[in-house]
């Protein structure tokens, strides 16, 4: 069960000709796939395309009606390999993942796929996680397209354009027997917009047809001598076919005046921000009516030589707007122009930054510099462009820089991973610091305050593998952390299998929260939920034992900080050889709350006895040292200033977002911090016995309290 | 720039060169930033405008902050405007910040500029992790944000939208939507806003109420909602003890013996000390304080507003009311404590409350209560101590309001008769005397240094390990102060040491300052 339900949005997938779709970009993409008659879809979740996977998972009925097969792939390589269904059969298929990380994982399969070529249209939708808000290394998918020779679509951020390009992309793939990649940037994925729908199309040829009529052709398999022929085929047949199709169908767009001394060539994805920059310079209106000729490359690979030549022929200079590095397009266009001896000067990364987001502000600077160098008359009387610098230089604003605190992402309130890292901090205090390899997933936030644990992260599921060099006898052992998502993605073999085989003495912590939580809470093999369409509840412990691990401990309640700490300590000190595997399991709190909250409210409404737990801090017992926060970092554990002239420092306080997980109390107890934490249990709809017990106790307690209060000096008189 | 360029007249490209209305929303997870964004988009679309919103979801969910961005404008002759996917500094019409420091961040990002931007911000705080982990007071200064808003925003709407939303049973997004409607920046009337909210199914009524309240707050200046109204504490002392004449005497003494500027703090201090132990202990507090005041007077404190006496009144009270098991048990068993928790939980009629304490007593804590002589005797027998510690030293879940546990706590809380003869009291008193001696000696030669030494008491806090760490910081700080005591800027160094000690848990920054001092003072 994913973090967000798309039950309502799924209905939009049924819209037909004449309807207007309004919604998120990623949903528009999903709809476009159905309009293109795909026979199968798959992929691996990850921002920014997680919602695509979630929508498909929630859209079972729609997909069944159309006869479309949907797979939640084990990882991106599995998804890419799935596309082999289109090699021999006229099946249209699409897969999606986060790029470039997912493309890295998939690239073996992609290279094979691209070499043999495809019969049915295949589309790889890559969520280009580049720029502000990205969670990965800043690289471009462009290189993969070039090296394996797959066509790369980079549509303008506009629903109509994206949907049209997906439909055309399948045709392009089929006519050139080549897989096509569709690159969508983070903000375009989550962009709200609209487009005019078409009817969904049932696949003409289905997976079932293919299974019943198997075909094979050794010429499509990457084996010598076929592999050599594939290369020639790519150059002599597929590329020219693609170029012809792209040109004939006008996938790239010309905007603005036919002629001009200067022009701008851009990736489709840059179009909106370029228009805004031109608007600031007085060279376009808000509707894209520009005074400078634009060549918008909705297809960034291959480059269409003739189109580039035609655009540049009458120009003194062109600006290439290409986000990210290296500047592949700029190089390619330079080659085209030199070969054809066209004299237009090429500007690009000389006036625009080599790396980073091409925001409207950045483009404003780049385009202005380009025009100043080449055609300053266009800048005219220079209307004032937006400029925040004077405000930013004001002393009152300068002062803010020291004040506004960073707000790094962290683990959610009640996260079951927090007690694991609190336990690791406690072990660190006893046994000293260790080398810790972190991994991708929510648990990576342990590298940030307050935990500051984890030295490296090498790729999803590769935490354990990245300790493999540390396989020597020493005073300390390496610790590797990996999530259940990473474990099933590849960590079982690359991490645990590898450690077993090489007799690695290290400690391997598998953080199992029942979902791939960081990507939105999708089910995986070891999810404990019942999922009608998949087989869940497969044990991680059995898997690691099956692969040969001997020392395996399962902790089925991570909030038991003391046990967690003792188990870690044992793993770090035991004389047993081979990998020490700790599987620490508790349900992702975000998902649990989503699951349990409605049930609890309903039960209370129905008059059932329900105990609701919440934690609190006794403000007069707390001394304001905040050691508890340094060992926890729970968002609901905060501080508050008391109205007491004798106190300087704020005390700890728990706000009403507390979900009663118990971590703060467990930590206070295990770390012998202070006795100010308490758990408050409120019994809703108590039984008569509950009330009776409480009444008796509170009567006696009340009497005792009054007795002592009478003896206390009457301090009220002092106020 | 060339002159000819400047003189060129460049006509507008088309009919509409104006830009879309742009709105940036800075929010954190759980604040409904996504819902607010959808509302604004829907509002614009209902009027036939083209609206585009973007965000990077997921980041905010996990406690970080994120920006939702919306652009909207009417189409022209069927042509859609080309809308940007990110806000451009200096070109944002409305910035909505769902938290006060996020308002500050929006200014730092250049999104708020005086020629253009209406800033709608809630001035409540949700502290960042960096503000919470300091062992002292790490809370960022609201004043700096207020100052910056003054110079950056064209117009501003600032109030506690969170409290207003909670008071009306909704979330902050509804309050911000109301504030946006009230600004009139978007040319849509109030009813069209309400129609958007009402179209949603869940919680529409509470959202509408919150919207209206926020709208009225902005338009007609309706008064602010008090933050989270607390239910009246049910005073469970129907027969308060009669006013003790001995207390009255102490109050008289306080007025006679202490100067006006120190009286408020001394009053609070006296109350705390008596509450901790008894009236005689209060007298002891005043005795010591009077002595310190005498030193203050002879050091010329009158010219300095008796800062030394004031700080002594504050920190002496804190030193005398150290945290021991008796105090903890006493506080946990008071009726006011239960009333406070009931209020915080908004306990309803017919619900039953129980609390569980997470306690981890060690032999050290038990030793604290034992008579000083017996304690010393035990300390010389490590094997016996170890045996006892193994019995005592474990985590205990104490069900406060079950009779056996309450009785146990009640008995411990009543042990104050033993306190002044206890081992802990002896240690605390010796430590306190040494500190006061150092302060008194300093104040004679360097008044401010004396005051600073008193303030170092702030470093001692917490229980068990935390307490030892605090104590060690205190000792290291005082030791380092002696190194510079003869310098003119000694008080400055003392302040720097104290501030450094409050910056991080283990005291790395303190060590840094000490090293600096050693480099020139040894």
Automatic annotation (TrEMBL), chain A:
Domain 4Fe-4S ferredoxin-type as annotated: residue spans: 613-645
Leader peptide range in chain numbering: none
Keyword Cytoplasm: no
Annotated keywords: Metal-binding, Oxidoreductase
Name under which the protein is recorded: Indolepyruvate ferredoxin oxidoreductase subunit alpha
Biological source species: Bradyrhizobium zhanjiangense
Lineage of source species: Bacteria, Pseudomonadati, Pseudomonadota, Alphaproteobacteria, Hyphomicrobiales
Automatic annotation (TrEMBL), chain B:
Residues of the DUF6537 domain: 263-478
InterPro entries the record matches: DUF6537, IorB_Oxidoreductase, Pyrv/ketoisovalerate_OxRed_cat, Pyrv_flavodox_OxRed_cen
Pyruvate/ketoisovalerate oxidoreductase catalytic domain mapped to chain residues: 29-215
Keywords assigned: Oxidoreductase
NCBIfam families noted in UniProt: PRK08312.1 (NF006179)
Organism: Bradyrhizobium zhanjiangense
Protein name: Indolepyruvate oxidoreductase subunit beta family protein
């Amino acid at each position: 069960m994913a973090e967000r339900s798309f039950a309502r949005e799924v209905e939009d997938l049924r819209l037909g000709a004449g309807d207007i779709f309004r919604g998120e970009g990623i949903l528009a993409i999903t709809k476009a796939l159905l309009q293109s008659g795909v026979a199968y879809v798959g992929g691996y979740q990850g921002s920014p395309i997680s919602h695509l996977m979630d929508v498909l998972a929630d859209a079972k009925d729609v997909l069944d009606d159309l006869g479309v097969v949907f797979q939640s792939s084990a990882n991106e390589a599995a998804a890419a390999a799935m596309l082999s269904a289109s090699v021999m059969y006229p099946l249209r298929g699409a897969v999606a993942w986060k790029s470039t990380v997912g493309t890295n994982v998939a690239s073996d399969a992609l290279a094979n796929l691209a070499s043999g070529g495809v019969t049915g249209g295949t589309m790889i939708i890559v969520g280009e996680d580049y720029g502000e808000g990205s969670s990965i290394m800043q690289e471009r998918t462009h290189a993969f397209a070039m090296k394996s020779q797959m066509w790369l679509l980079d549509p303008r951020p506009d629903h109509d354009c994206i949907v049209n390009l997906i439909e055309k992309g399948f045709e392009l793939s089929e006519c050139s027997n080549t897989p096509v990649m569709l690159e969508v940037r983070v903000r375009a994925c989550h962009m709200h917009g609209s487009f005019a729908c078409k009817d969904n199309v049932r696949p003409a040829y289905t997976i079932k047809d293919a299974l019943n009529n198997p075909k094979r052709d050794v010429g499509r398999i990457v084996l010598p001598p076929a592999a050599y022929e594939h290369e020639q085929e790519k150059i002599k047949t597929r590329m020219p076919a693609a170029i012809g199709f792209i040109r004939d169908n006008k996938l790239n767009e010309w905007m603005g005046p036919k002629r001009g001394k200067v022009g701008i060539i851009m990736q489709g994805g840059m179009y909106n921000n370029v228009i805004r920059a031109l608007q600031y310079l007085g060279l376009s209106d808000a509707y894209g009516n520009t005074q400078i000729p634009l060549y918008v490359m909705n297809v960034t690979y291959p480059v269409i030589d003739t189109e580039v030549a035609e655009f540049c022929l009458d120009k003194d200079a062109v600006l290439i707007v290409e986000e990210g590095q290296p500047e592949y397009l700029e190089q390619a266009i330079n080659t085209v122009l030199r070969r054809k001896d066209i004299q237009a000067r090429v500007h690009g990364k000389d006036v625009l930054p080599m790396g980073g987001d091409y925001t409207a502000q950045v483009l404003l600077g780049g385009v202005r510099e380009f025009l100043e160098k080449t055609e300053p008359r266009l800048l005219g009387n220079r209307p004032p462009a937006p400029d925040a610098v004077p405000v930013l230089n004001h002393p009152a604003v300068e002062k803010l820089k020291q004040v506004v605190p960073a707000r790094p992402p962290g683990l959610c309130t009640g996260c079951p991973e927090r007690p694991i890292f609190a336990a690791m901090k406690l072990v660190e205090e006893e046994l000293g610091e260790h080398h810790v390899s972190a991994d991708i997933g929510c648990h990576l936030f342990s590298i940030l305050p307050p935990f500051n644990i984890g030295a490296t992260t090498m790729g999803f599921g590769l935490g354990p593998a990245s300790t493999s060099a540390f396989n020597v006898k020493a005073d300390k052992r390496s610790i590797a952390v990996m999530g259940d998502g990473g474990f099933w993605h590849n960590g079982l073999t690359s991490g645990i299998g590898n450690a077993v085989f090489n007799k690695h003495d290290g400690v391997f912590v598998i953080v199992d929260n029942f979902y791939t939580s960081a990507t939105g809470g999708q089910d995986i093999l070891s999810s404990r939920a019942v999922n009608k369409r998949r087989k869940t509840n497969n044990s991680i412990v059995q898997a690691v034992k099956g692969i040969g691990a001997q020392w395996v401990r399962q902790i089925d309640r991570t909030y038991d900080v003391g046990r967690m700490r003792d188990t870690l300590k044992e793993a770090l000190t035991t004389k047993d050889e081979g990998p020490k595997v700790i599987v620490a399991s508790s349900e992702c709190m975000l998902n649990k709350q989503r699951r349990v909250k409605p049930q609890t409210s309903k039960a209370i409404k129905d008059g059932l006895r329900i105990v609701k737990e919440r934690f609190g801090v006794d403000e007069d017992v707390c001394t304001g040292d905040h050691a508890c926060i340094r060992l926890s970092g729970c968002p609901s554990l905060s501080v508050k200033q008391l109205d007491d002239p004798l106190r300087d420092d704020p005390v700890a306080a728990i706000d009403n977002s507390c979900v009663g997980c118990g971590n703060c109390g467990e930590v206070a107890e295990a770390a012998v911090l202070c006795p100010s934490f308490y758990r408050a249990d409120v019994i809703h709809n108590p039984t008569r016995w509950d009330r009776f017990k409480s009444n008796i106790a509170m009567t006696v307690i009340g009497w005792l309290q009054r007795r002592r209060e009478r003896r206390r000096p009457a301090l009220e008189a002092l106020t | 720039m060339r002159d000819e360029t400047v003189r060129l007249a460049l006509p507008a490209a088309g009919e509409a060169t104006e830009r879309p209305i742009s709105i940036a929303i800075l929010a954190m997870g759980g604040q409904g930033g996504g819902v607010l964004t959808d509302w604004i988009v829907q509002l614009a679309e209902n009027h036939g405008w083209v609206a585009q919103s973007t965000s990077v979801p997921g980041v905010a969910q996990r406690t970080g902050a994120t920006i939702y961005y919306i652009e909207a404008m009417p189409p022209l002759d069927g042509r859609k405007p080309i809308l940007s996917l990110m806000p451009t500094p200096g070109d944002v019409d409305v910035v909505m910040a769902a938290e006060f420091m996020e308002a500050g961040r929006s200014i730092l990002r250049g999104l708020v500029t005086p020629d253009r931007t209406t800033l709608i911000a809630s001035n409540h705080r949700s502290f960042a992790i960096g503000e919470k982990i300091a062992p002292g007071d790490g809370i960022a200064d609201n004043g700096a944000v207020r100052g910056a808003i003054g110079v950056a925003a064209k117009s501003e709407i600032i109030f506690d939208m969170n409290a207003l939303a909670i008071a009306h049973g909704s979330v902050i997004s509804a309050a911000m939507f109301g504030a946006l409607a009230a600004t009139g920046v978007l040319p849509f009337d109030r009813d069209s806003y309400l129609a958007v909210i009402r179209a949603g199914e869940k919680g529409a009524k509470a959202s509408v109420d919150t919207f209206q309240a926020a709208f009225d707050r902005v338009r007609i200046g309706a008064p602010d909602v008090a933050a989270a109204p607390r239910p009246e504490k049910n005073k469970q002392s129907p027969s308060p003890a009669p006013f003790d004449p001995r207390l009255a005497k102490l109050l008289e003494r306080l007025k006679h013996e202490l100067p006006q500027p120190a009286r408020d703090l001394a009053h609070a201090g006296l109350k705390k000390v008596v509450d901790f132990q008894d009236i005689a202990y209060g007298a002891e507090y005043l005795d010591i304080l009077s002595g310190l005041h005498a030193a203050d007077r002879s050091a010329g404190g009158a010219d300095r507003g008796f800062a030394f006496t004031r700080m002594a009144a504050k920190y002496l009270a804190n030193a005398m009311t150290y945290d021991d098991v008796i105090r903890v048990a006493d506080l946990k068993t008071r009726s006011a404590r239960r009333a406070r928790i009931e209020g915080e939980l908004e306990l309803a009629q017919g619900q039953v409350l129980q609390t569980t304490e997470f306690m981890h007593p060690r032999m050290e804590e038990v030793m604290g209560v034992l008579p000083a002589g017996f304690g010393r005797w035990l300390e010389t027998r490590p094997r016996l101590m170890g045996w006892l510690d193994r019995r005592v030293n474990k985590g205990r879940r104490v069900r406060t309001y079950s009779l056996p546990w309450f009785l146990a706590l009640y008995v411990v809380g009543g042990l104050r008769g033993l306190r002044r003869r206890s081992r802990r009291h002896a240690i605390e008193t010796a430590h306190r005397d040494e500190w006061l001696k150092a302060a008194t000696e300093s104040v004679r030669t360097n008044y401010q240094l004396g005051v600073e030494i008193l303030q170092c008491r702030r470093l001692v806090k917490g229980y068990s390990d935390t307490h030892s760490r605090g104590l060690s910081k205190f000792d290291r700080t005082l030791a380092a102060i002696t190194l510079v005591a003869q310098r003119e800027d000694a008080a400055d160094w003392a302040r720097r040491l104290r501030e450094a000690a409050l910056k991080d848990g283990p005291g790395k920054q303190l060590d840094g300052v000490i090293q600096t001092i050693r480099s020139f003072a040894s």
